[in-house]
Amino acid sequence: MTDAAPHPGLDELVATVHLLRAPGGCPWDAEQTHESLVRYLVEESFELVDAIESGDRAEMIEELGDVLYQVLFHADLAAATAGEDFDIDDVARHMTAKMMARHPHVFGDREAETAADVVAFWEDLKAAEKPHRTSVLDGVPQGMPALALADKVIGKAEKAGVAPRSRELGEYVTDATTEAELGEDLLALVAAARARGLDAERALRGALRAFQDDVRSAEAAAAAS
Known about the structure:
Layout (H helix, E strand, L loop, with lengths): L7 H14 L5 H5 L2 H21 L2 H23 L8 H15 L1 H4 L7 H15 L16 H14 L19 H17 L4 H25 L1
Helix pairs in contact: 1-4, 3-4, 8-10
């Protein structure tokens, strides 16, 4: 015999969030806005990354809970905010519909036998969902850490036939063959930049902005021709 509620722990957490935000609950919780909560979502997400990479199951449970709490907090806030008027069920239903649309090889009649097959038509599905996007770069979150953003932008740029401008880096050209070696080389480069009074994160973001301008220019030229 199964429980009437398949996820009683989740239901209890939803109720707890609502109680904390309701009149008579926590004054701090009641004062929060979507904007004020952003910093906590970012922090909790990075803490979850740390837990995943450490392989600590107990830490993963805790940090997944912290990220889940942020989602529930935003949903409860929206449910009580005029003009937003959505709750966690709306969020869940929207995500279910999105995943079903993104997986026609599971829920429809499209065939995909390998992960590569899925990747091959993934961009087409996203393009159909968001026709207002005119660049491969549209939708790339610019708030990502610079190195992760660099990898994302370069991957997107390949689809537009654009590559970063190459230049000789002298002693900083890496011959790393493993991620550990590459990590050491990147760390050394950042250390050298710091010793010269340079901000590596800010520098890479500036280079990425210029590179993204190149991508958009190439797309515009291709569209014009």
